[in-house]
Specification:
Strand order of the largest sheet: 3-4-5-6-7-9-8
Order of helices and strands: EEEHHHEEHHEHEHEHE
Radius of gyration: 18 Å
Structural class: alpha+beta
Shape: globular
Distance between the termini: 23 Å
Number of helices: 8
Largest sheet: 7 strands, mixed
Helix content: 25-40%
Length: about 240
């Protein structure tokens, strides 16, 4: 689905900007339609550090495998119990819904991306057959059903976040904040009332980021049986109102 973000005007620049400023820009990468998202100062201390981060709506085909590598790395505690990185790179790229991704590019390289559920479409269109083909009948069916059980219900007027990940060598440089700002802008332009996410108990740094960006916890759930299976035993649902 075409985002309304692509209908906004844009300018470009390479300098670091004040924290209170908002910089809109767009570029085109790999022939894809560029989305226009807000860029805010990420706390760089010099112009040399303030390398341009391009934010795009949609996932070009050549970014699919690098995206899965980032996703696996970010959620390794969850995935390593279900499949190896090599297996994830075989199965998941073709299941990724391009229109449900917002990506961060620096120097032509994918350095982060965020998944959303817009129009009741998940980031990954999970299907049984690819898992069976790669993992075999029994293991493939088991992994498929575990992933299906982890899917969350869609609610009208609510944009559901489906994970956010950043290159481990570039964390703490504001890329995650840029992706969240892009999600906020997307939600506003597409008339969502709230943004919802779930953060697990083993990821306190992500929770701190979400709280700093205006998310508030509304409920927590404990899943003692998932500790050995997926690496976490509790999750907190957080909401941000779109203003």
């Amino acid at each position: 689905m075409q985002s309304k973000l692509a209908q906004s005007p844009a300018t470009a620049g390479t300098r670091a900007i004040p924290e209170s400023s908002l910089h809109l820009y767009a570029t085109d990468i790999a022939g894809s339609t560029a989305a226009i998202c807000p860029m805010v100062d990420a706390g760089y201390k010099s112009e040399e550090e303030a390398q341009m981060i391009d934010i795009h709506f949609g996932m070009p085909d050549e970014c699919r495998k690098p995206a899965i590598a980032l996703y696996y790395e970010a959620f390794e505690r969850k995935f390593c119990r279900l499949m190896s990185l090599e297996e994830a790179l075989t199965i998941l790229p073709n299941l990724l819904n391009s229109e449900q991704a917002i990506i961060a590019i620096r120097d032509g390289k994918l350095v982060g991306f965020a998944g959303i559920q817009h129009g009741n479409k998940p980031l990954f269109a999970i299907r049984l057959q690819p898992f069976i083909e790669c993992l075999g009948i029994f293991r493939g069916a088991f992994v498929f059903f575990v992933l299906m059980l982890s899917r969350r219900p869609y609610k009208d007027g609510e944009l559901l976040m489906d994970g956010i990940c950043v290159d481990k060598n570039l964390r703490g440089q504001g890329i995650g904040s840029l992706l969240l700002e892009a999600i906020f802008d997307f939600a506003k332009q597409n008339n969502y009332k709230t943004i919802r996410l779930d953060v697990v108990d083993t990821n306190p740094s992500a929770r701190k980021l979400y709280e700093r960006m205006g998310f508030e916890p509304i409920s927590s759930y404990h899943y003692p049986f998932t500790k050995r299976l997926m690496g976490f035993s509790a999750a907190t649902t957080m909401i941000k109102k779109v203003v």
